[in-house]
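Quick one, T. Sequence first:
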Amino acid sequence: MSKKAWIIFIVIVVGLLTALVVSSRNANPSIDVSAIELNAVQSASESNGNIADHVLGKADSKVLLIEYGDFQCPGCATAHPRIKAITEEYKDELGFVFRNFPITSIHPNARVAAAAAEAAGLQGKYWEMHDLIYGNQRAWETVTGASRSEVFADYATQLGLSLDQFNSDLGSSAVGQKIAFDMALAKEAAVNSTPTFYLNGVKLEQEVWGDDTALKSAIDAQLKKAGITPPAPTE
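Structure tokens:
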């Protein structure tokens, strides 16, 4: 790599590192969500930094599965491929929403990972970044400083994002507000650990969300209750 290219790379990494630090230190603003319907897809508003809920599958479905998750949580990473596969299977009948609940007291990189996903979402690549972050959790969970910056910059590059915009959005007030809003919803829902799942407003026990057959049965029951025929089982 030429000297000029190295200088450009260092400038990008330093800028990204600054944004990561700002994001990780950004205090949660006080948000009143007491009047909000928790079991509903949240549209963009001033309260969430004008960043709506991210929905995989059928956004207007009568059956909604919501996960409150932490990107650095090992249990969340383990559940991720299973939940993704089930969501894909039910994508024409089910809406799946992921909301941020980074527990930074034990997962110091969780909030900046959430910011990276939200920043990617502002360029239309939320779920792609979501999957990259979970799929490579061990590669970034313990990194700090410039190394952490390089990891998330590399993911942004892999997804073809504008690094300048990604860098700017990472520490923006909008992204910080979105994460704080999700956390306020989680606290209103009495979430105290991750992952926590709600299916049409009912909290699922680990025996249900942790077992594919049990989770599918729960989803099928809600679909039938809503007058929707569940998809045929896949082999």
